[in-house]
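Predict the 3D structure for this chain.
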Amino acid sequence: MDLKNFYFFNSLSKEELTDLEDISIIKKYSKGQLLFFSGDEPKYLHLLLTGVVKLYKHDFRDKEIVLHHINGPSFVAEISNYEEKSFTANCSFEADSEILLIDYKKFKDKFLYKKDISMLFIKSLSKKIKYLEEFIHTNMSIDINAKVAKFIYDNEKTINSIKQIKIAEILNIREETLSRKISLLIKKGIIRKEKRDILIVDHQKLLNEFI
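Done. Predicted structure below.
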């Protein structure tokens, strides 16, 4: 394990990196495996090295509600570690992945006091809070038409690498509903399709769909 390659820890000395390695293990997971359940105690700080994880809950009808997709490298659900509370969502792997499991109690005692590490931790937490605010706004404050338009606008560079069924899952809508909303945007001349790729024709009109 060579932790100095990860920007999270590039401020640590050789001795500190060795101490960090001593309290950490790398585990490989396959797509579909679970990392933790809602209610589990966060014994480890989870650093996703490679791959993708999904954080999700179930509503009163047992429908899966996707809260966040996280790509490595990134911390996962570190707010539960910081607050020393149980996880509030389930986490599973969307692709074959590697996770660095760090003994959080020892990490807190040895490293969290360091200015560079604590600032990275705070920035990571702030990023997750911002995402949560956007998630609440997207799912509670705007209608489905606006939700689809915003997703296309925000993800212009990557949308054609995401399967439509996955986009529907992220937006918590049915795939059939997503197809209808995309067709409506095409009819309005706001986007167009080339084979299976979505291309934005008029960015301003697309923006007007959700602002």
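The longest helix spans residues 115-141.
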